[in-house]
Amino acid sequence: MSAHVAVKDLRITAGGKAIVDGVSFEIERGQVLALIGESGSGKTTIALALMGHSRFGATISGEVRLGETRVDRLDDAGLQALRGRRVAYVAQSAASAFNPSRTIMAQVTEPLLVHRLAGKEEAEARAVDLFRALALPSPETIGARYPHQLSGGQLQRLMAAMALITRPELVILDEPTTALDVTTQVEVLKAFKVAIASVGATAIYVSHDLAVVAQMADSILVLNQGRTREQGAAEQVLHAPADDYTRTLMGAARPHARSAPAVVGKEALLKVEGVHAAYGKVPVLRDISLSLAKGATLGVIGESGSGKSTLARVIAGLLPRSAGSVSLAGEELPKGLEGRSREQFRRVQLVFQNADTALNPVQTVGQALARPLAFYHGLKGAAAEAEVARLLDLIRLPAHLATRNVRQLSGGQKQRVNLARALAARPEVLLCDEVTSALDTVVGAAILELIDELRRELGIATVFISHDISTVRAFCDQVLVLYGGTAVEQADAAAFGRGVHHPYTDLLTDSVPEMRAGWLEQARTRKAVLAGESGDDLCRFLPRCPVAIAGTCNAAPPPLRSGDGLALLCHHELHDLEGMSA
Amino acid sequence: MVGRVSGGAAPRSAISGVLPLIAKRIGSALVTLLLVSAVVFTISGLLPGDAAQETLGQSATPEQVAALRHEMGLDRPALTRYVDWLGGMAQGDPGRSLVANMPVREVISARLPNSLMLAGFTALVSVPLALAIGIASAINRGGRLDRTLNVLTLSAVAVPEFLVATLGVLVFSVKLLWLPSIALVSEDASLWDTLRSCALPVLSLSVVVIAQMARMTRAAVADQLDRPYVEMARLKGVPFRRVVLFHVMPNAVGPIVNAVALSLSYLLGGAIIVETIFNFPGLASLMVNAVTSRDMPLLQACAMIFCAIYLTLVLVADVVAILANPRLRAQ
């Protein structure tokens, strides 16, 4: 029997430049092929070509066969009949791929209706069945909602329902979990795997995350700049990679602990005590205290909405705190931006998550860096130019980039410039807000190393905000775990490594996929014991906690348990927790 | 246009959720109208000279002017006059025209229907045409049709309407002898005659308004066409026509109705040039005459009518935008 999907010598060109250059692969019916690579590798472009779709007017050539159909030879009407019926697509960001003005039900049933495969009532009944199969809450009524009323994880599963409702032969999943928290990702991956298997579809899984791919794929195709680097069974590519580039990807995926220990000062440079903050009337931070010495790194982790970024904004003064104090070298900083002196601004610098939007697109790199130099240090003319050159050298970018427009840089280069802009002030405290999350693994790893080096050389205290627990574990001297705006756990690196954790930290750790097949099936999704219980004084994690104690956790606020370099909020004793996380 | 709700309980809650929001918009429109009335009243009081001076002419003695002022009630405190006037306005009686010496209501009621008719005809012609041009332009973005329409609408926006009007007269009235060059509107004219005499004014007004609305529509639709949900719909196999109608339009309708409301509000007050050229008996020229003759009650009433119509249009646009947007609807 010939392969279900066959692609031969696929070439996709845009503006005379080949985005995809001679890629070939075959997939047997019911198998999952993963396309992996960094951004710009052409993985999404290839996936879309299987539906005869190309972005930005790119042209597709080569052979694309699905069953007996030559997709590359179909006309517009043929493609329209193919899309959504035989081949379905699950987009990266469900939040933007759903139409904000239409109900979920109208959108999920649309493929059935436009292909005239079912009437409205039958279509809705099938949608409800799929909602149930994908473990969505209240499957009967969720369809009447609008996209903005649902969470990212729910939308991603609803998008899978929209793709699977026509029982397609081929499903294309384009980084479907990249925008999700790790804890949500586990559930979504599980739901996808079951649902795809039940339809019996062949699938193409596009991702940059090797550990996720290990859970989903039967075979893997590694791409770099539009060319195939390596192709083979998942087991072989992951555990015995033959290609150098594959090995680089694997290396970047596993952050290794930094080589030299930091030279950490004794006195606290940045001190945050009992800080509360709120957006309007909604509290986002409750009673946060921390202290950071010169040259030390504090890792702040938590899911989206946990208040991580808010903490950085409160320290920087972008969001005035409602209670508590923030002091720098013993001197209390004013609440908001007003009242802070230029010197206080200079000493605390914030590096934003998204360099694309943080840098002014009409400026050159030199202008972007010269601005803080003039503002904080009064440097002008040749002195400023020399300093710009020094900064570029510091962030390992060639000096001639100074005249380049910010827009012309790659994502990694932009993030370096973004970092250099903060360093230009010669800060004492650097607040890094998810600075690597928009970057590819390889580029992100390089940025992390750079931050670590700079910290060691310049003795800057760093607050490193991340949703990636393994990065934080590898790079930070102290760790702060936030849940719902409360610090549920605070520890130094040594204590954090000992394995005694708050149940929430355990959940985060357990949710990080491992690079072996079968992890997903074994991954514990421990159900909450007292789901639905919540109260302002009670443990914030209670509604999701798998080890909550009835009658205790839902009755009294959690006590502070502290041990050697470790403090956490939990009703369980520290030695009990040790057994639970094992 | 508005997204259909398939759940049982949702429609009622959606509408009841919107009502307070709409009530709030109406309330704020009324407050705006009140503020505008104060501004209109104050500013018309600041204009040099008054009706007494104007009626008596340059040769009048100060005593005569003062006597007439007293007779007209112009010497009372401003606040009293304002409250009186506002009360009258609220009851539909904006006072007596000082120059025509008859109730302002009668003066206006002779003109307002003409203006509304002109605006109505223009809206009927221009809104569908503008939407068609805007949407056609957006879905052919970068194509020949789009570029042609772009050039046409841009030049139409740039050309002053008196030029359009004059050219229209030259071509259709002077050369072709198809249409009258002066708009004679009377009650006993047949519908056909009315249409013929309105044709050139409507044409001149439409050119500019269509161009404005078409450009805004194009921008609103083009902005939505770039959204990922459009690509997603295409990848579901949804025909392009259906994508535009059922996916793009519900999201573009908010900005479009706002652009339409702004353009249409121009059709009343902004029609002054066209009214003058075609000698059209409309409200805008009446208001200009009121300014030159210092006929304050008439001027104030006209200003309030323009403002009320403008606020109504914006209010309607707001409500449509709210109804089209489930986020606002669900508030």
Question: Can you offer a commentary on this structure?
Answer:
- The complex is a heterodimer of chains A (582) and B (331).
- Chain A has 22 helices and 22 strands.
- Chain A has 582 residues and is of the alpha/beta class.
- Chain A has 3 domains: 5-253, 3-Layer(aba) Sandwich (Rossmann fold), CATH 3.40.50; 268-497, P-loop containing nucleotide triphosphate hydrolases (Rossmann fold, 3-Layer(aba) Sandwich); 507-581, no CATH class.
- In chain A, the strands form 4 sheets. Chain A has an 8-stranded mixed sheet with strand order 16-17-18-13-19-20-22-21, with helices on both faces. Chain A has a 6-stranded mixed sheet with strand order 6-7-8-3-9-10, sandwiched between helices.
- In chain A, strand 14 and strand 15 form a beta hairpin.
- Chain A starts with a strand and ends with a helix.
- Chain B has a single domain (10-46, 77-329), classed as MetI-like fold.
- Chain B has helices at 10-46, 51-56, 62-72, 78-90, 104-139, 144-158, 161-175, 191-225, 228-235, 240-269, 272-277, 283-292, 296-324, 326-329.
- In chain B, helix 5 runs antiparallel to helix 10.
- The longest helix of chain B is centred in the N-terminal third of the chain and has 37 residues, at 10-46.
- Chain B is globular, with a radius of gyration of 24 Å.
- The two termini of chain B are 20 Å apart.
